User: What shape does this take?
Amino acid sequence: MRGQIEFNMICRFSIYLFLSIVAFPALSHAQTFQTVLSSEVAAPFVDLSYERAKLAFDRIIDPDVDEAAVVAQIDQLAAAAEEIAAGGSDIDKLKAVRQVIYEPGPWNDHRPFVYDQDDPYGRDLRNKLLATYLDTRRGNCVSMPILQLIIAERLGLNVSLSTAPQHVFMRYTNPETGRSIAIEATSGGHPAHPREYAKLGVTDAQVDSGIYLATLSKRESIAVIASTVSEWLMEQHRFEDAIAVTDILIEHYPKDVHAVLLRGAAYGELIRTEFMNPYPVPAMIPPPLRPRYQMLAARNAAAFEQAEAWGWLPSQD
Assistant: This one.
């Protein structure tokens, strides 16, 4: 713990994510979101599926999503890519995936997918849902690489996700050579050189620590996909639940800096609601409540200290 954490410092920590409030319905079915998260992230390797995981996580956020319609559109895109690649090499398949998503044609009903310049980060969580992206054809740095990932997975390609500050992208790894390349969904699905990510603020220390630009495993990639659930819980002011989700994600992806920071933010929001609002200064906290305040403050600080030790830097936006 960084000595006595002042309330204004906790305030800074707790606003790591600038999230808009969206009135999604609460999860209504018997399975809890923890069960769904665990079943997808911790599934046996042979059962891991990007498509199934994304659909399950989106269903937590919005149970009214027309899953059949989403799958039908994925079927259409994947079948077209298979036909275009016609049993070709992995490079042929990657080009086919790019074509069916970004080039107008019968495969996408002559409605290619484009970058949503109005909401590039998916601040409105509706825009991170696959159903929204397929409907509007306007995506962000989360929905775009995930659709690309799902179509590539359908074609049997060895793909995963990777991250940069406030950004997600797809990686293809050659199963024979082990060489991995970044493929940037927000720039037409073309390969991207590592130096391009320096423009997003990626530093050598962050790359060396493994928090950014890493070639993630399939399980770690699914943990990245699940991050939208924790963001949704934060929007719902369900801070304890958000912490429970980040615990699951960090268990399976220990260097998930986004989850670590969000967990720290959730502890900060608990301090805000339980202590900052009723007690203007820490000295006014009743003695029986001080152990909980100290516990929350310590965990809030520990999350950000861990992120900083990995080289994370606060956004300058």
